[in-house]
Predict the structure.
Amino acid sequence: MWAQIVLNMANDGAKKFYEIGPGKVLQGLIKRIVQDVEISGFDKLEDIQKISGN
């Protein structure tokens, strides 16, 4: 179901995907399913706070 869900999100207009937590497993899976999206990963809360300005 994972691949179908990712494809549905991309077909519905999702252009950015975020993985929160250690590792990059989900980022790799998404790259294999859809190539024309932006994928980012955040290992720690501090990483998210840096980009959000909080």
Q: What stands out?
A: The beta strands are 16-20, 38-42.
